[in-house]
Amino acid sequence: MTHPARLEPPIAFPRISAPRDPALVVPVAALLSAALVGVALAANVAVGAAILIALCYLPLLFIDLRLGFALWVPLIFLQGIPAISLGAEAAGLLIVAAWFGALRSSRATVGAVLNRHRGLLAALAGLLVWLMLSLTWADDPGLGSDDLKPLLALAALFVVAMTTVITPGIVRLVAVAFVVGAVVSVFVGVLDGSLTSAVEGGARVEGGGGDPNFLASSLVAAAVIAAGLMACTSSPFRRVLLVLAITVLIAGLVGSASRGGALAAGATIVAALIFFKDRRAHVLALAALLVGVAALLFANAPAQWERVTNFDEDNGRSDLWAVAWEMGKDHPIVGVGLHNFRVHSPEYVQEPGEVEQVGLIVETQALVHNTYLQLFADGGVVALSLFVGLVLGCLRAAKRAADTFEWLGERALATLARSVLVATISVLVAATFLSAAFDMRLWLLLALGPGLLAAASRRTRKERGDQRQTGLVPVFPGDAGRRLRGT
Fold first, then answer.
1. Where are the domains of the chain?
2. Are 290 and 250 in contact, with CB atoms under 8 Å apart?
3. Residues whose CB is less than 8 angstroms from the CB of residue 119 and which lie 6 or more positions away in sequence, other chains included
4. Whole-model pTM?
5. 313-352 pLDDT per residue, tens
6. Are 397 and 452 in contact (CB under 8 A)?
């Protein structure tokens, strides 16, 4: 009689589970993160650096989203450096994710800001939808689809900024971060030879963004904001630091040899005289000082001076503008489709008249180098109108914020708000020489307008409560006052 074979007991494998001791979670996570970063760095330095930045940055966002946003701002000035560019993109996505995560607890505050700027948000949504729809009639929708990702990211970060940077403290912090980013960009451009380009016996500083014209645009804006920050501090040490920062920014502007930057600087002085009515003497004195510093720097950089003052040679911009204008006239309502100017531009080299830089249009297929003509050619009057409406809404919000702070007696905050307004105008003027519709620095400055107005509104509500306790009814300037009085 045969006996059945004995069954061997199954092999007991150790069960892998999360550590029961919470104290072990942090070191285990740190080891796994270090291993991940090490492998990524070995495979690709840029990707590894981006992962490292994201891993260090993520916990901060859960602790304080506003502080994390402010620390991200300087990175947008350094996107010409591959590792930092990837890190900045990863950090931007994390900011948006953290904003959605915190939305439940801040729904009332966020809802109030969004509700107040319904028209502005409608213009933003309309611009996004229209540019997406333009791909349906574009000859090469693949080119436009490459722009959709950065466009959607810009829109998301714009909404995050306008609903997060809504207190005076965080506004000042973001303003400081903007100035720091611009200063660091100048130093990177000077110290790193790869971020400069030769020009007529000299060198154009390209900065951390890798483009001298975009650098110049941001430096003018940063100098204006730095001047505004001086009104927000009584510390002599901080004021000295801001003066040094402005000096570095002016030096970087001279080193960029950008005609667009010089034009933006001139427009900035005019805008400051308009919006700082009570401080025009201070504006003129500061402008004279900065012009003097720039003159001394130009005296030691004759190649940059010759380029800035030579308007006979525009490197083909006038040809590109003429082609964009003719293209827009042929497709005035809908345009040729997002990012499709370069597809159609070779067809127009004979139509505008005498075109000198044919190779720039046919072979290089450069962008328009004018934000407004670029939108007109790509998206027609509809896209251009929506963008202009968005811009005007943000500028109006900054102006109303400055007026409200002034009425409340917050002179420092009023000065900072007007500085943001003038800085935004300077970038918009420089955009006539740049295709800057997707420049995050421009969108950040635009978002500060609604953010400043939200900060001013919070102050007016506090003032209203204080006045009610004393039996007085406050009268606030503009629409904010009419809403508070219930009229």
1. 28-105, 124-166+323-487, 168-315
2. yes
3. 389, 393
4. 0.84
5. 666 677 788 888 989 999 999 999 998 988 888 887 765 5
6. yes
